[in-house]
Amino acid sequence: MRIEASALLTLFFLSNATMSITNDICTKKILIGSPIRQKPKILKEFLFSLEHLMQNNITVDYFFIDDNDVEECSEQLASFAKKAVTCCFVNKSNPVVEQPYICTEITHQWNDNLIWKVAAFKNLIIDKALQDDYDYLFLIDSDIVLNPKTLEQLIDTGKDIVSEIFWTRWTPESEELPQVWLYDFYTQEKNFLKELKNPGVYEVGGLGACTLISRKALRSGVNFNKIKNITLWGEDRHFCVRAVARGLSLFVDTHFPAYHIYRESNLAGVEAFKRDNNLLSSMCAHNKGCKLTLSMCIKNEADRYLRQVLQEARNYIDEAVIIDDASTDNSVEICQEVLKGIPLHLIRNTESKFTNETSLRQQQWNETIKTDPDWILVLDADEIFETNFRTEVASLLLQDKVDVFYFRLYDFWDESHFREDTYWSAHYVYRPFLVRYKKDFMYQWNLQPLHCGRLPFNINQQAGATTPLRLKHYGWSKAEDRVAKYQRYKTLDPEGAFGIMAQYESILDEHPNLVEWVE
Length: 519
Fold this sequence. Notes:
Blueprint: E1 9-16, E2 28-36, H1 40-51, E3 58-66, H2 71-83, E4 85-92, E5 102-103, E6 108-109, H3 112-131, E7 136-140, E8 144-145, H4 150-156, E9 161-168, E10 177-178, H5 190-195, E11 201-204, E12 210-214, H6 215-219, H7 235-245, E13 250-260, H8 270-276, E14 292-298, H9 306-313, E15 319-325, H10 331-338, E16 344-349, H11 357-369, E17 375-378, E18 383-385, H12 389-398, E19 404-411, E20 417-419, E21 430-436, E22 464-473, H13 479-492, H14 501-506, E23 514-516
Parallel strand pairs: 2-3, 2-7, 9-13, 14-15, 14-17, 15-16, 19-22
Antiparallel strand pairs: 1-3, 1-4, 5-6, 7-12, 8-13, 9-10, 9-12, 11-13, 17-21, 18-22, 19-21, 20-23
Helix pairs in contact: 1-2, 9-10
């Protein structure tokens, strides 16, 4: 099916001419396409998130079909075109009067004519992707707001057809459900829905609205034409049936869920989504010379807090350097799984350096600076920032007056209480965890084998500032971990030369003073 000359249609083709291709990097060429008939406030948020997609090693062009009946929306597209540096307008004349597309606070009102008109628009976008030999086509609805890392993540999955997940209440009173399903019209199962809440890539039976399609899939003949001998309603379902019939599999990625502005009342949640996904103050800080690199050492952390720590950290980091100090469990596999889609430099020691902390910390630092970081965040595998760190960290990275930020660390003695008594008051002291890397600064280390510090000791010579953001340390929160640490300190420092002997002994106190944590 193709668009007749009488259809109301304006096509925008935009090219991001600011991207360059280097000889040593394989750059992927992506076409982002969308048929657009939208309300101005919703379209504004959609375009905003497209502007701030990370585009490392990729070039992006845009192919929008302007089917709007509100002039303000067409003006927004024209403004977006100007920002994209180059643009080409193709106009179709002779508009026709047709049944309007109505969106209410209850639902969207579709009919067959509207569905197959949109299908024809999407087919036109597929034709463009094939004609200009793009590596991928990213088809997205104009009421979606994306995490900046979405496009890079979908490409990294290596799948030929994969959607980024989003959740929607299809009616105001219903539960939130994803735009993907297992089979038939929209069949899902309880375990399937539970699984999709965890970061990963999962095979599905149907998808749409936020989908990356590879050149291989495009060349196979996938399209949105109606399959005449099935009764499934909706062009996405016909696309999915045709794709599977051609031997392709369908997948959903759940690492960076998108936000669906299904009804105007959903606009109230956009600002929170932006804050949680670094779309407000950071504006993709990574692209502004504010790359945040996580630096960490791990050893046999699989059954402790590693997964939880990394799942939280991936909300704001751009890269990670992890030293695995001869783990014998599956800690490495957890790092690779949870940080999938984020550049990960994983160094595995065949022999542990755990008894010589300064050697291990220097290795961690040296491997981290090899990645040319802008900012380095040094965390241990049992440390998690309070939730509002996600929304505040961008402002720390973007300022230009402070090079080292100091935070308070709270030693948790169970899941919800931290310890506070004579020898356990670390949370009254501010310690450095976030530092801007300076290539011309001569970093120096405390060379003692225990309690040497996780950063070079002379960073206090750089411009520093404290912050009220707090860090939760779960390393003491289980009785078995406290016993293990007690034994380690007594073995490595039997005379208390590097620490306080009374504090070592207090680790095993049966009745410590605990204070409830308030987030």
